Amino acid sequence: MKIALTSQNRHSITGHPGKCRRFWIYETSEKEILGREIIDITQEQVFHQADINEEHPLDGVDVLISIKMATWLEDRLAKKGTKALATTETDPDKAVQLYLEGTLPIEPAFDHGMKKAAANMPVREGMKPIPGIAIKGKS
Length: 139
Fold this sequence. Notes:
139 residues; alpha/beta; 6-stranded mixed β-sheet; 3 helices
């Protein structure tokens, strides 16, 4: 099994997986870690930029673990066959071992839809428009 972890600092599991350029890649059996390596991806390959239909260095990863996980990225990775998980554990080796044992603390993915949220906000007197976002009741 291949497990990837976001690690922008190369030491701990970090957040912002959509913008992350460094990942620990673990090769595991069902019960133990067999090996690991760190990979760097280009700015064009970060999930916020990359085309889902193109090949990606993380294709073939079974699980991606990060400190936070947006629902859009969870859905996108699922389409490539990768399970996306958010955790509170920051130690990469410990997180992988806990995952293999079925005890990794899991956090729910969050809705990163700020444009959707802003578009559904009620209009109040004195509100300034946010560039590029249509606010209900304003044309």
